Amino acid sequence: MSAAPAVVLVGPMGVGKSTVGQLLAERLGVGCRDTDEDIVAEQGRTIAEIFVDEGESAFRAIEKKAVQRALAEHDGVLALGGGSILDADTRVLLAGQQVMYLSMDVEEAVKRTGLNAARPLLAVNPRKQWRELMEARRHLYEEVATAVVATDGRTPEEVTQAALDALELKDA
């Protein structure tokens, strides 16, 4: 088995996992990988298209395989899709990893995403659906996390520094 990722980023859609992942990877001198990007590249279509064409359960099966593969192959910073922690097997794989939960409240989510982007799970009444998603997922993010960084009102650079401090990781 290869080396584990230096850090795995989890959290809701729009929290900044991809952006912070890139910044963290630069600061640590390692590569960055995003499982959502892996899925889009492998499937040749957007995540929204997969949801529309095949449904959420089909997407979650694709996502589970992508996460398993990335955890086994990648030794840098790994950003996971917002719903990847719904899978119990994925949560087991995250046990013992350095997992950073990037959190934000609904008002920050509104500011960042406008809650109107191509987010298939937020198509109707986005604020209510976002709150419900977070009620269903927050405890799972907390369960897998070795550290939590609130992103509300912070720049990506500030979140990155807080993540480094929380994980006690030093710049490369």
How are the SSEs ordered, and which strands pair?
Elements: E1 7-10, H1 17-28, E2 32-34, H2 35-43, H3 47-54, H4 56-73, E3 77-79, H5 88-94, E4 99-103, H6 106-113, H7 126-144, E5 147-150, H8 156-167
Parallel strand pairs: 1-3, 1-4, 2-3, 4-5
Helix pairs in contact: 1-8, 2-4, 3-4, 4-5
Description:
This protein is an alpha/beta fold and 172 residues long. The protein contains 8 helices and 5 strands, in the order βαβαααβαβααβα. It has a 5-stranded parallel sheet, with helices on both faces. Helix 1 crosses helix 8, helix 3 packs across helix 4 and helix 4 runs parallel beside helix 5. The longest helix has 19 residues. It is globular. It starts with 6 loop residues before the first strand and ends in a 5-residue tail after the last helix.
Outline:
It contains 8 helices and 5 strands, in the order βαβαααβαβααβα. With 172 residues, it is α/β, with parallel strands linked by helices.
